[in-house]
Amino acid sequence: KKESFAIITTETRRFFSVLLLAHLATAMIGAVSFTLALFLHWIPQAFILVLHLAVYAVQCLCGLTPPTKPSRQPTEDEFKVVVIGAGFSGLAIGIRLKEAGIPFVIVERAAEVGGTWYHNSYPGCACDIESQLYSYSFEPNPNWSRVYPPQGEILAYLKHIAQKYDLMPYIRLNTNVNHDQWNEKTSMWELNVNDNEVLRANVVVNAAGALHVPNYPQFEGRESFQGESWHSAHWNHSVDYTNKRVGIIGSAASAIQAIPELAEKASHLSVFQRTPNWVIPKADGPITPVWKWIYRNVPFAMKLARWLLYAKHEVTLALAFNPSTWTAKWIRKESERYIRHQLRDHPELLKKMLPSYPMGCKRILLSNDFYRTLKRDNVSVHTSGIACIEPKGIRTKDGELIELDIIVYATGFRVLDGLPKTIGRGGDDLLERWISSSPEAYLGMTVPKYPNKFILLGPFTGLGHNSVVWMIECQVNYVMQAITHLVDSGLPALEVRRHPHDQFMIQVHKELDQTVWTSGHCKSWYQTKGGKIFALWPSFTFAYWWLIKNFDPQDFESCS
Length: 560
What we know:
Strand content: 5-15%
Shape: globular
Low-confidence stretches: 1-9, 29-49
């Protein structure tokens, strides 16, 4: 066992060494390119680049969202904001609205705050972004227990935020928005909640996110199964899976965290996989008391750690997500080598687990024990496909019946179903529009025909390489500027103009064409059923911050 651990440790170290070398190589290339730019008389562009990076570094260290306040504080009768969702996005905008003195309410359909970190509580649930980066810039936490935070600590952090900033009096739990509609006569939104109440608001901010409505594949006979079954996002903690025959459908982000935990207690674990994923080592571990002391007592220590982690993830975008670059090919080669080494004594399992599509096409996953777990005697991997579900278990397409006591669906989420039915100006139905074509939004936040409506983490603002908390704070800053402009100007409503919206979409798709996500080699939740990417921001996150750091009223028109 010690020899095996030493080999794994050596391979893991080699993998991270290769990534470090690639990061250093990219930095050197960037330095040379910058020097050449100077010698080629691109002084103005070089100066602007340095200015961008300097301002961005200051923002990283000092916080992304400075308070934005209107010149006067409106009463609730004059102006009100309704925020949908009490996760990272909803709490962030709630804090800024409270600071600005703008009347608001946060409606949350769950029984507690926390968003996706409340709903997802499956065994092994954790974040795949480092804890110092997966937290608000204005509220760093020196007490994280691990480099990558577990679900329980993230949920506790969000509850702490709600209490510290006194948001609970503004939050209505167990309140579900069924649909919302723009009233053109009153220039207000009307939200039907819990089927028996109507809330009216000047501005609606949808902060519910996209990954919270479970996706259940429509397998024949699913309802006939006689054992226990549930989705990973709605874990049934009342059922003990010790010494039970457990089947888990899926092998992606949630599954690779749950599988090692399930295998420890189950008598047998059957993994039903449709497509293998790129799984690489996770540089995780406990944060020692010494580091916690440094974070608590050394000025800027946590902010500097956050900035360094942020810079590392930004470089990763340049390294890994353009399939034509030599660095992407190199990283794929090393990742493949790592997988081959992990499964070197299991050739049949290696065939099932080695992806054939470009790295990054689907979400890159992090785990130190996934492949090791698959080699256990009480774990089997089935890749022939599921033909149907029967009362006693799952029948695969090759005719085998896998008898089970429990079925876990780690099958992702219905992304668009996370939005309530939304009717805009002229009776336009947002969900129908997006489902029939593809989700679109100016800057990922606002849509023509939907005045005073903002979506946080909307289309084209998800990330495949960095922390979405960064994006949330950038967007909150922008939305607060827009709301402040509404209050100060006295305008009834602002609606994004068609031209800047369309120009933004053209530019986003142009940049997406340079990434691995549009390579056509795989399907993912990033895409519509027609294969069109809509979920991801295609460039660096500091480029997004620069793009939206100032609200421009000229991009909008007043309407009623």
